[in-house]
């Protein structure tokens, strides 16, 4: 009986020991992870506190702020009672700064409105002429006024209005725009219907890039004309120089002595050969028996060339004999 119960008790003790070890490991891991998380949180808190401390190192505390406000109020009251003007309170300074800021903002709005009006006026139809010249409707009015005969202009003859008196008595149309509490007046001169019809027929919205392209095209055309004129002049000068050289050669041939003429002709052929041009050697020998210069000879084939002697270190060579052909 005793021997039969011992194995059961031993198994129970083994199971109990296994649970204890598991619980110890489990709670140890929880405690360690908890302490690690607490350390991380504390490190974050300490770092944040240090950052706040550095940022508020030179800032005022609540008592110092209240003391400063009280001093400022006291100095303002003393300044008011004594009638002195040496002290400017923070309240007055704030009012002045706010007022100046409003004025600056108002000026900026007025400037933007003016720029928008100018941009809108630039988008009107214009007549573009060669050379980048632009004509608006008012320019066309000024151009056509007084361009007629017998004291009448083209506008009056068109029958659209009574010319001089009507234009002089015509009042400008005023259009006001409210910008920042200020009325900005936009003046526009009334344009006759005849001019409006001309602008509709011949006017267009001018693109500045198109004007630049046309100006560049004109410059290229002028440059091409200049180059062609220079080329023509150079060709003419070259022809005149060739004709002059021929005349001088003919004069020298008939006036210079025979020896001098032959020497000059020989020197000319030698210079021509030195410049790399092909020269007939027979012509040179006809002019002079002795010629000083370098003769370039291309050997096509050679016979009876001696072999290379390794002991005496002699090189192969050939002899070229230049004979004057009959």
Automatic annotation (TrEMBL):
SUPFAM superfamilies: C2 domain (Calcium/lipid-binding domain, CaLB) (SSF49562). It comes from the Eukaryota. The keyword Membrane applies. Keywords: Membrane, Transmembrane, Transmembrane helix. The chain crosses the membrane at residues 26-50. This is Ion transport domain-containing protein.
